[in-house]
Specification:
This protein is about 30% helix and about 10% strand. It is of the alpha+beta class. It folds into 2 domains: about 30 residues; about 170 residues, no CATH class. Strands 1-2-3-4-5-6 form a 6-stranded antiparallel β-sheet. It is globular, with a radius of gyration of 17 Å. The N terminus and C terminus are likely disordered.
Length: about 220
């Protein structure tokens, strides 16, 4: 009944695609969200110069890879997945990693209209967009952090996923996790990514993790 009411409200009171996706993700607690990312093959990821982040210049999406996970900015919201084609988990703005937020505007392949006029060599002005409450909560996100310490080395890419495309792509989170355990034992270093990574491993798909013991990783 709750799901039926949600669908009817979406039909009777149309909203933006972004809000519809987020509402579905939170309202009925689905394990993953479809956001229109449908890659026919593994992305051609290249480093963002000076950042431990990758992007694909050939994809018409704001698509990144950082610290073992894929990140997509879609409809004013962030989504995360351990596999290149999802399913995706919605990420609260308070839990988006610093280096993801700092990626300069020019590396957003499908920037939203409000990016217009912002410096291409600087990060998006998230505080202007998301308000002073968010900026106060995340006051360290872009205040000289790059000058204070060198950026960490980028995580190894999970290149084993290249062999899984088309009909071979694993759709279930449990299957994805099992394959990842076999082929990609990297453990993230960013505390915020650790939480997302652990939640996906548990199959809960809520995008906000709980602390667990961290082990040493290896890349097969």
């Amino acid at each position: 009944m709750r799901y039926l009411l949600l669908v009817l409200s979406m039909l009777l009171f149309p909203t933006t695609a972004a809000h519809a996706e987020v509402s579905v993700g939170i309202g009925i607690s689905v394990p993953g969200i479809r956001i229109g990312i449908n890659l026919p093959a593994y992305p051609r990821l290249v480093p963002v110069p000076g950042y431990p982040v990758y992007y694909d210049p050939h994809i018409n999406s704001n698509y990144f890879f950082y610290d073992g996970l894929y990140w997509v900015f879609y409809g004013d919201g962030w989504y995360v997945s351990s596999w290149y084609n999802g399913p995706w988990d919605w990420v609260d703005r308070a839990y988006v990693p610093l280096y993801v937020l700092r990626v300069p505007v020019r590396y957003y392949r499908r920037p939203p209209p409000y990016f217009h006029g912002w410096r291409p060599d600087a990060p998006p002005r998230w505080g202007d967009r998301w308000g002073p409450d968010w900026e106060q909560h995340r006051s360290d996100w872009n205040k000289g952090a790059r000058q204070a310490a060198p950026a960490p080395a980028p995580a190894p890419l999970p290149s084993y996923q290249r062999q899984y495309s088309g009909d071979r792509y694993p759709q279930k989170v449990e299957q994805q996790h099992e394959l990842q355990q076999q082929h990609y034992r990297y453990q993230p270093r960013d505390p915020m990514v650790q939480k997302h990574y652990e939640e996906r491993g548990k199959g809960q798909g809520q995008g906000q993790g709980q602390d667990q013991d961290k082990g040493k990783g290896r890349n097969d």
